Amino acid sequence: VAANPDLGLHLGVVPLGIAFSFCVGWTPSHFIGGLKIQGNSTVVNDVRPMLLQQLEAQGMDPGMWQLPLFCCDELQGESALPVFTSRTTLVEAWVASGRTRETVPDCSVLDLRLLVQQMQTDIFAWHTVQFVAASAAVEAVREAKAKAKVATKDEPPPLEGASDPADEPPPLEGGINWQLVNSSESAPPLECGDGSGEALPSVAE
């Protein structure tokens, strides 16, 4: 977008849940064509065979896209299960918790569709799931909010008592909630196997 300003394009931001709902057809869309959630192409291509195997084992349609999610038992807490949209972000959280980059364990990987399916069951306290986005994505959202605030500075002020999302306190460095990664309590591991009772294979960076 920034490299081609004359095209009149702009970067929009939408919550992952809403994007997923559109992409799988739960919410009608007027868009003509296929909608997909695009992860980092290098990472997606690297783990796609594993993700397709997961979905096939559960009898699920893999669709036209896959989105890998990353988690590890050591970063789980009693009241929080952080799920990372990239392994790089998981490593950032690991280091932020006071541990070294060299000790980062292999992490479990599962497709977003599989996680959503499991979250519709009662096998785990899913309200503890917290998605942790890449720090670059968090910064992009902050910049977009700041630009939108400047662009609308001539509009009438908001109603008294209304809050402006752009005025919310910025996330902690790297977009990581330190409370998630500093917890010493352990929660049950995320069940993301292929139905055979065996854990999913781990993937290293």
Word description of this protein:
With 205 residues, the protein is an alpha+beta fold. It has a domain at 41-153 and 166-188. 31% of the residues lie in helices and 9% in strands. The chain is built from 6 helices and 5 strands. It has helices at residues 16-23, 41-57, 87-96, 112-118, 135-151, 178-182, and strands at 68-71, 81-84, 107-111, 129-132, 202-203. The longest helix has 17 residues, at 41-57. Residues 162-205 have low confidence and may be disordered.
Secondary-structure blueprint:
Blueprint: H1 16-23, H2 41-57, E1 68-71, E2 81-84, H3 87-96, E3 107-111, H4 112-118, E4 129-132, H5 135-151, H6 178-182, E5 202-203
Q: Biggest β-sheet, characterized?
A: 3 strands, antiparallel
Q: Could you say which overall geometry the principal axes of the C-alpha atoms support?
A: globular
> Which bin fits the share of residues in helices?
25-40%
Structural class: alpha+beta
User: Gap between N and C termini, in Å?
Assistant: 29 Å
Look at the structure and give the mean pLDDT. Answer: 77
Could you give a quick summary of the protein structure above?
31% of the residues lie in helices and 9% in strands. It is α+β, with helices and mostly antiparallel strands.
Keywords:
205 residues; 5 strands; single chain; disordered C terminus; two-stranded parallel ribbon; three-stranded antiparallel β-sheet
